[in-house]
Amino acid sequence: MSRYKIGDRVTVRDATTLFHTRTQGYTRGSTGTIVETRPEWIVPEDEAFGILENGRHEPFYVVRFNQKELWPDYTGFDVDTLESEFSESWLMPAGKEHA
Prior knowledge:
Strand content: 35-45%
Order of helices and strands: EEHEHEE
CATH architecture: Roll
Number of domains: 1
């Protein structure tokens, strides 16, 4: 069962990893809005090492960010956005960063 739904505000965990991840560094610590949910799949950290049969499965989400919030020096339009996909373990409810 998915923890988040479309419209939820989430923050990408600002975590480091020694292993493969699809979580871009520039999104870590940033807050955005869930715009699409995806089915469960093997988390990239397990998939990269061929742990397919016994790998961890999690729902995935597409999160939309305002580009000016990602990059303070961004000179584009205020409405410009970027979307990226994250496994559930990389997300937390917005406002819970220090809880």
